[in-house]
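Write out the 3D structure for:
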Amino acid sequence: MAALATVATAAQAQSSVTIYGILDAGVTQVSNTSGVAAVTGLTNGGLSTPRIGFRGVEDLGGGLKAGFTLEAEFLVDNGSQGSTPEALFARESSVSLSGNLGEAKLGRFNIFTYGLLAKFDGLGANNIGGAVATGNRPARIENAVQYVTPKLNGLQAGVQTGTRTSSSTATYGEVAGDTSGNRTNGIFVSYDQGPLELAVGYSDERDYAASKIKDYQFAFARYDFGVAKVVLGALNQDIARAAASASTTAANNTSSTTFAATDTRKTDKLFLGANVPVKGTNFTLNGQVEQIKYTLNNGTVRKPVVYTANVNYALSKRTTVYAIYAVAKDDNGSSQDIVDSGKLSGFSGSYAGADKQAASIGVRHTF
């Protein structure tokens, strides 16, 4: 009885708990110029990756609040966890304290590089075309600690550190007796005042011996002209060496893996996008062009270009129908993806030198 009373008291103390989510599915066809047959299938997350989440906030008084977020990803076409089978709440699992001095968060959540790229992507972090769908970015960290300052005249900054996320080939965890090994670290500074938004930042990944595997630098800007929002972004990825395999990880990563001649050593991504609401209608027109430069270990440079156009029609505040068309113009043997492979099975972007195109029609509902 005492235990039940404690649980009841705790439940009553919770100020609010929100259940939210996104269901997004469409029919997509992907083809290329190499003569391989086109693939048509049901895709997930044409506009937004499907998810379900639970978010709670408790007012502790004096401006201090406690919060939590649990967010899981799934595929609408078959109900599976899709691209995040390693954990149920793989998109986020965190607890936080926030107040006048900012917010401290612990758990698993977005790396700043990914979170801000998703925010500034002119296609809204969709999975067909756009700066997120074309890859070459980190996603999330776990066993992580993060601090973000309050906004002061539009300025805000943050710092985070945590272990690299697990995958199907290797499991990464904390290193006993070492606070710097096997970590991802990140910082950002942003400005958001009136029509102008800016963000710059840096993150890196380190192995068990605290040696750098790769790092990322980014700079994003968006301006609201009233009739349209225009975004400009740059993301750079430098790879110091290839990631360790599962066997080397098990051996505390004492031997570093080396590059093959055709491995990508550096990626530079530039994109320019626009969002145009059509006055007097429920239509929004979105477009983006993206130049990606891959520098291989042998000095070869490949520079594919991705063009994406998207039309959204809002049936209500929660339901949107959409059409997306994306084209990848490959260069010098490149094989640029334009559809997240986890969202449409049966098609691979590994057809070197073959231009690709994707067309999709779908519906998104939020709750």
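The first strand starts at residue 16 and ends at 32.
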